[in-house]
Design a protein that fits this description.
206 residues; alpha+beta; eight-stranded antiparallel sheet; 2 helices; 12 strands
């Protein structure tokens, strides 16, 4: 697929390591202005601080945050900023760790309906401390995880940005006039059944 510009959009990647496997979360952020080098740096630092001060509480101690990368998607070969202040920022959640590919899917909702207006965030780890059964996450863990993602939405808003779903296609065709943005208004988990991210299995994917 050829590059399609998304004006004002910054792709944020939280790049982590678990059991020598490279894993990540990714989110699109509307800078609400042309992304300058200073904006890219600010978004990356804001994203790192949220992970370290908030999200680490729901992530296993096996997960190490290596860097946060902010990339300008306004133009092909747009600017990029990498924030990596240390190599010791890890999750804080103890307990027995489930295999790398075990995850929980958080649904990212907007004010619009349809698949084009929704997104997903897959947790980077699950421990036995978060379980209520063999295949289910406990209500307390679900609340903690969704609260963390909702805190990210608030953090970005307070910093002057907006987390968004960027939709490039509709009805199986490119959108006329370019991508459409849907502002993410909330994060929710629709069921307590654990999910799978097979690419995070050691030796698979990155």
């Amino acid at each position: 697929m050829p590059f399609v510009p998304a004006p004002n959009i910054v792709m944020v990647e939280w790049r982590c390591t678990r059991n020598n496997q490279q894993i990540e979360n990714r989110l699109m952020v509307d800078a609400l202005a042309a992304p300058t080098p200073a904006i890219l740096q600010d978004i990356a630092q804001t994203a790192w601080d949220w992970w370290e001060n908030n999200h680490a509480n729901v992530i296993s101690t096996e997960v190490n945050l290596r860097e946060v990368v902010a990339t300008d998607l306004s133009v092909q070969n747009g600017g990029q900023y990498t924030y990596a202040p240390d190599t010791t920022t890890v999750g804080l959640l103890g307990g027995f760790d489930l295999p790398n590919e075990v995850s929980m899917c958080v649904s990212l909702r907007t004010g619009s309906r349809g698949r084009s207006a929704r997104g997903r965030w897959y947790s980077l780890s699950v421990t036995d401390a978060q379980l209520s059964g063999t295949n289910t996450m406990s209500p307390a863990a679900i609340t903690a995880l969704t609260s963390s993602i909702n805190a990210l939405l608030t953090t970005l808003t307070n910093a002057g940005y907006a987390a968004v779903i960027v939709s490039y296609r509709t009805n199986n065709a490119p959108r006329p006039g370019g991508p459409v943005y849907f502002v993410i208004t909330s994060a929710t988990i629709v069921d307590d059944i654990l999910d799978s991210m097979r690419r995070r299995k050691p030796g698979v994917g990155s």
